[in-house]
Amino acid sequence: MVTGSSSGIGECTAILFASKGYHVTLCGRDSDRLQEAAEKCRQVAASGGHSGQVITVVGDMTDSAVQEKALLDTHQAFGRLDVLVVNHGVLCPIVPFSDISEQDYDRVMDINLKSAFFLIQKAVPYLEQSRGCVVCNSSIMSELPGNPITPYMLSKAAMDHMVRCLALELGPKGIRVNAVNPTFVNTRMDRDLGMNSEQRQSFYVAICQATPLAGVESSSCAEQADVIAFLAGEDARFITGQCLAVDGGISCKGNPLLWLQ
């Protein structure tokens, strides 16, 4: 089950799982885009000779009823839940601390943290049956202090600590909990930063040029999906409570929003 899978990293992750033969539940708010992503999953599954099934659940993951429906539909369709990828999230506009509204703060925290917390809570009975795992999509910004997207950074710092806390509490149930911490990835989500298309293009060119790892561009959704799949897979069976930066080393230089022009 992959939340926020109608585009971006979530869509790439769902497609990758389908290509590996997983049954997949895609969750998102945009019905049309979700159906397009589901069809891509069916096509890659078929081309790989897999019989993997794909279902969709349309709705907002901040809604408890949508969370319950997604989990129940998954269990009814496939008989089990092995992997929960908590990928849905939102950014916030680039504004000074003094201009952040309570509404924007609550929106970011509700989507990025609160909904993730209670979705995982509801998933525990299913994951305990399968000795499954959770992979959260966090951010390198979780450990890089400084404005100008403080609510987002707070939500991801809390997510990282949630991962560590839940790894301890759910480990005795056989449930692993980890996170990927991506660099900036050019997705639809970045519209929330409030930059126009020219500014966004310049920003990603600068990120690419500033990345320490030679010969790479700004990270793709597929690169992030590969690591999510690794953490969900059998090769990572002894890994839990970890937050893995997938950023080409750029976080070693500090918060890019502070030193990039």
From TrEMBL:
Gene3D superfamilies: NAD(P)-binding Rossmann-like Domain (3.40.50.720). InterPro entries: NAD(P)-bd_dom_sf, SDR_fam. SUPFAM superfamilies: NAD(P)-binding Rossmann-fold domains. Pfam families: adh_short_C2. This is Glucose 1-dehydrogenase 3. It comes from Plakobranchus ocellatus.
